[in-house]
Fold this sequence. Notes:
By secondary structure, the chain is an alpha/beta fold. The protein has helices at 4-14, 45-48, 56-60, 89-93, 113-122, 138-143, 177-180, 184-194, 198-211, 223-234, 254-257, 259-276, 347-359, 363-370, and strands spanning 26-27, 33-39, 49-50, 67-68, 71-74, 80-82, 97-104, 154-157, 171-174, 238-245, 283-289, 309-314, 323-324, 345-346.
Amino acid sequence: MLDRRLFLGVACSAASSPLITPVVFADAPGDRRLVVIILRGGLDGLGMVQPYGDRAFYSLRPGLAKRPGDGLTDLDGRFGLEASFDGLLPLWRSGELGFVHAVSTPYRDKRSHFDGQDLLENGNGASDGQLTRGRDGWLNRALAQIPGARADYAMAVGQSHMLLLHGDAPSGSWSPTNVMTLQNDERRLLSLLYAGDPLFESALQGANMLAGDGEASSRRETGATLAGYAAERLNGPARIAAFSLGGWDTHRRQQNAIRQPARQLADALTSLKKDLGRNWDNTVVLAMTEFGRTARENGSGGTDHGTGGVMILSGGAVRGGRIYGQWPGLGERDLYQNRDLVPTDDVRRWAAWALSAQFGLSRRALERDIFPGVDLGGPPGFMA
Length: 384
């Protein structure tokens, strides 16, 4: 009989469709889990978690700044959550969501999406956008340091390549596009070919879930579907997953532009909680972006590329309901280069402490190998 993997290759070639990537997440001993979400485009931390207690905020953003009870929900007497992000409030109120304000990578001044995202995912300490360690990612380097990890693949879920998982440790990516391009009869053929094969049958089922039911309206990736698929794997032997959500580059009409990505983020986090069930209690979710946005709104009702921003912490293993970080103020003399929120902490430090808490990585490994040049300092106290 014709080997079905060979036959699969012939069938997919005939259909002009690439082979489906095996889906295996990073396995590690124990019950603790980590999910990393990259928010591509530069999330406006000042717009999301608004510092309404800082009087200078309203002079900088006369059109975008809100007040508690009028487009803003008070969080702690100083900061409020903008109404587009109301889907996150249940997690905040249950103590499973927190924010770190005025953080960034060491990247400065050029404010390029490409350089900023590379630096965020690479994890080195360069300020000029140069990848001093080569094109590998900090999460890939962490895999080699986790005691007892059994990682055939660390998996990035979605359609975008993630430098975060590139490196010497085996990794791959998984996208619903491969199945989305197939016709119904081609999907049926693959189902017959994969039947009874634990690896390939499971991979196809996951792809179909991400791709939707075949209708055009169901073929779009959403936060809920990506998170649901990640949760399915994390409920098995997997302990680490990563994916990205885009749409955060809000140069124009920010109040309208932010609504869809905000909804995607809320869907992702709430779906992770729901689908992980009891495993949520041992999970940390880090949502990170390449840089913040300008303190001043621009003439188009949006904001431009900035520096200091916000990091999102979630999960049952997080001490939420708090705003972390040292607030630098928004007065004229407080701004970085008279335009941006000054970063008072390194976003890599918070990711490093999450890796330490979840997987027992040493300070030496974190400061030297995974995040070169970072100073961990004392524990920031965000773990429950």
